[in-house]
Amino acid sequence: MSIAGTQARTADIVSDSTVTTDEVCQILADVLRDGIDIHRCAAAQALGCLGDAAAFEPLLAGLLDEDEDVRYDAAEALYRLNDRRAAVPLLESLIGDPNSNVKSTAIGALARFGHVEVADWLRRIIRGRADDIVWDQEAFYDGGWDDWLDLQVGAIEALAELGVAAAVPDIVDAIRLEDGQDLTAVGFKALARLGEPGIEALAQFFEDGDNRWRRRIVSALRGVDSRGAADIVTRALSDTATDVRLAALSCIAERTPGDKRLATLFNDPTPEIRAEAVRLCGAEQAALVNGLLNDKVAIVQIAVLDLLATRPQLLEAETLADQLRAKFRVGPPELASAAARALAAVAPEIARDEFLAGLANDKLSSMVRLAAIDGLAKMGGDGVGQALINLLGDGERQIRVQATAKLVGMAAQGEWPNAHGEALLAALRGELVPTPDEPDEPDEPEAVEDVETTVSDSTVEEAENDPSTPAFPTSTLEAISASGPANGEVLEAQEDVRLTDEDIEFLNLSSKRLRKRVVPLTPAVAAHEDVPRLAARFLGDIANEDVAVALAGALVGSDREASMNAADSLSRIGERLGSLPVQVIDTMIGRLVTSDRDLRVHTIRALGVAQSQRPVMPLINCLADQDSFVRKEAIVALARLGAAGTNIARFMADPDPSVRLAAAEAVAIQGAPEAVEGLVEFALAFEGYHCREVGCLLRAMYPAAASHRLIEIVKDPDRLRVRQPAIQALSELYGPATAAHENPTAQQASNGSVRQ
Known about the structure:
single chain; Leucine-rich Repeat Variant; mainly alpha; 43 helices
């Protein structure tokens, strides 16, 4: 069809009213009734996505479809509709449909509907394969898995949801069945929801079970408010197993952290429990926490210190600051870092002096110094900025990263220019940490003389004539058994064995020594190289034109990582400022000719937020790039600049999926009515690969035109090949509103905040 014809057709469609959801449901119902199996599945799924009452009757008919996949999709759709009129038909499917997926969906839906009439059938399923329920007898032999096991679990959960206390004996028997599956996790939770009969059963299990059973029982009772449940949890507080006491602590502290029953756990012999008691309920039981500040185990002290960091007024001891300072100075790394956090909250002035002195001590562990950096950055004050600047060239990379990040935060908060920002710009230029002098050439190691060991022919001859010399094995079996020829017979030498190429390859592999590659968590990089890279990365948090100009200088530097960090930071600055200086834009345009793919991608992304027409033509030239990442970013950038143009639609046929989708989004952003036809056809192309994403775009653009066109395609008997993606696109077009909002481009188009 010509462009003029497409525009005329689209204009006619746009003038029509939007197709109602009821009409769409009727069209999908026709497909569900008369279509081929794959189309019937798609129609059932779409009807469930639409969530309209008109979908109810067609989906009920789908429960009787000859194809089990269609029946399953219909059951799932009815579950989504949450229409209680489907209870009886779904109960019939549970009883009479052999497919386990249909049965499982029916169980979930009936429990959701509160259909208590299903309880007797669920109890039968718990006991086993009831004879009056239809089962797929061949499923186990085909798949190797007994689907009844999954249905047993679903039945237990459904009975708990329905509150059928009469099912307690059935659940208990299933849990205790010696040869059955492990149902303790789901079974205990179900019993906890079934009132006093279930609680009584759990009490007996608690008495008879092992540590794992008792822990699961306590966890299942979390949130249950009854005397029987409280008695079980109280007994668990004094259990011999640590994990059971921990479960009881968590169960009680979640609801009433000030419960007096928990007091004993602050003196528990297990340090993990004492620490957990402090974390979970120490704020409500401060009197019990005070004695644990100097606990003999470090993890308990750390729990108290972490609590003080968030609640500095919890303890009121006169010597508290001195105790925290002592722990910071001489404690092990984890304890000292926790003490630093607590000291910063309890006594900021004392903490500032301690931290400034501690940062100058390079013998402190990096963990403690990192905590000091965090504390200083939060407190601020005189000397903090200079202390952080002094750390930019530190020998430990973690310290450099943290110091740079905190310094950027301080520079961004103050008025520009400021000393913190100037230091960061100097770091970016490589002026803060000078390049070290070339080290002296190491001395050449002394050469080691190779000693060649030779064996003379006479020695070999003597060995051959020596009767004590063992004969070389002439067979594999003889070599393995390490025995000579039987009965003293001398076997003739075998002919030379010719090795195949596969044998030679295997021997080569067996001679290699396999080693595990260990990747360090912190890359080993010299400070003078790392500092400019870190500055280029973090300076993007300062939305300032001077910073953008400085980053443009780093963009053309010789350090690849610093250049990429600078490009990424420029894109963030452009986002926040809404534009970038002209000289920065020109510098980025010049970097588009680099052979480094990653740098081109980062630079194009930054040009997309420049809000200038200067990079339009260079970005258009990038559309011919052989790399798909570059083409995709160029399309996105042009769309953001409002310069994508109508020719961008040709990239919806690009070999790369990401490029195709970016082109479709660019076309949608332009909002031209004549683009609807192309987007609809694109949704059906490539086996419907992009149909759902394009459905969201069409919903935000021209839903009326799109719905008319998609319905035409669904009805067209000559286009059966693309009927499935057309149905899926329709489901996105008429489904829940959140589907469109998940797509940023669709949301932008729907809000009208796009360039026309």
